[in-house]
Amino acid sequence: MRLREPELEQTVGIRTAPARRVAAASFVDCTARIEFDADRLADIRALVPGVVRRVPAQIGDRVEPGDPLFELESTDIGAIQAGLKTARERVRTAEANRDRQLELREADIASARQLELAQQELATAKAEARAARAALKMAGAGASGSAGRYTITAPIAGTILRRPAVLGTIAGDDTSLATLGDTSTMWALCEVPEAFADRIALGQILGVAADANPEASFEGPITWIAAEVDPQTRTVTARAEVPNPDGVLRANQFMRGQITTSPSRAVVAVPRAAIQRVGPRELVFVRTEVGVYEPRVVRRRSGGETVEVEGRVAVGDEVVTTGAVLLRTEVMPGSIGAGCCEVEGPGGE
User: Fold this and answer.
1) Which domain of life is it from (predicted)?
2) Gap between the Cα atoms of 222 and 238, Å rounded
3) Residue 170's beta-bridge partner residues?
4) Which residues make Cβ contacts (< 8 Å) with residue 131, sequence separation at least 6?
């Protein structure tokens, strides 16, 4: 395409920059899905059936190990607490009987068998008391305090992600009360086309970015690669652990992924502003002389302010940066353009 008058180049503010040779790595593009790190999740359930009576923690709260999440009332806990109280009384009674049998045995009044039975009774009472204390400790209940009540505490540090339980919920080991997770690290699951699966390996870096904000990217090493090809999508799943200190990444979020598969190599790169989309294609405008620009189709191979491209662009070609949007309007199908150019052809492929 050609400006109607070469002087218009300065008038409309068209600026160019040379295509440069830069060092870049090889990539495999893929679709990525963000998930919670399953090794940093906790499913909160009641070990002992009960009714939720108090909920001190809310969705979104940050908790530390041992922080209270739910207070439950349970007849089973009440029975265990009563059993512990009975067992303690039995221990005291058995200790007194053992001591009495020792005295009688020393006085040669009681038999050795009677002393042995007294010691067995004491050992049994202590075992019952230990079992009751262990059951209460596991459930989060105390030996004393509110009868029949126990508290479920946070097993890990993290954020309360889901909390379906409310006051009055009947809780059991088959009911999820809440989900607690550490979102400081997330999983990025990348679906790699079968044809490129042999190019990926453990330890390679996976970078992910959202279409809405491609400049905000996240990356982490690949820690797992599936041993099978999905029969429906013909892809292989690769998983990377991606730091998420600010909580920007969210589970079930879809992003564009890119796996770095080879060391740096020399490639052609242009400023991001030079790349314009026209329909399904991306192109740059190469300035061949004053006021004359040739649209050339390229393929973007990376993100950032300087973009690696493939196509008919060579090192040193002057590509339009400022004013590229104006030139795009001249070649877009159905566009009336700005009226400043004469389009001579469809552009290079």
Assistant:
1) Bacteria
2) 7
3) 51
4) none
The CATH number of the domain where 88 resides is what?
A: 1.10.287
> Which residues span the domain enclosing 317?
2-22+266-342
Backbone phi, psi, residue 126, to 5°: -65, -40
For residues 341 and 124, give the distance between their C-alpha atoms in angstroms, rounded to a whole number: 100
Nearest one of 29, 30, 26 to 262, comparing CA atoms: 26
308 is written with which tokens?
């690696």
Q: How many domains does the chain have?
A: 3
Tell me the C-alpha distance between 194 and 337, whole Å. 43
Residue 95 exposed, middle or buried by CB count within 10 Å (0-12, 13-18, 19+): middle
For 27, the 3-state DSSP assignment is strand
Tens digit of each residue's pLDDT (9 = 90 or more) over 307-336? 888 899 999 999 999 988 888 888 887 655
In a domain, 158, yes or no: no
Helix, strand or coil for residue 126? helix
Supply the pLDDT for residue 342: 64
pLDDT digits (tens, 9 = 90+) for 196-223: 899 899 999 999 998 887 778 899 999 9
What pLDDT score does 340 carry?
60
Q: Write down the number of H helices and E strands in the chain.
A: 4, 24
> Which secondary structure element, helix H or strand E, spans residue 220, and what is its range?
strand 213-225
Q: Write out the two tokens for 285.
A: 């405008």
Asked whether 150 and 136 are in contact (CB, 8 A), the reply is yes
Which residues lie below 8 Å from residue 70, measured CB to CB, with a gap of 6+? 44, 46, 52, 54, 55, 56, 57, 151, 152, 165, 171, 177, 178
275: its two tokens: 């790349």
Q: Determine, yes or no, domain membership for 152.
A: no
Cβ partners under 8 Å of residue 15, min gap 6? 320, 321, 322, 323
Non-local CB neighbours of 157 within 8 Å, separated by 6+ positions: 63, 64, 65, 182
Give the DSSP H or E segment for 3.
Answer: strand 2-3
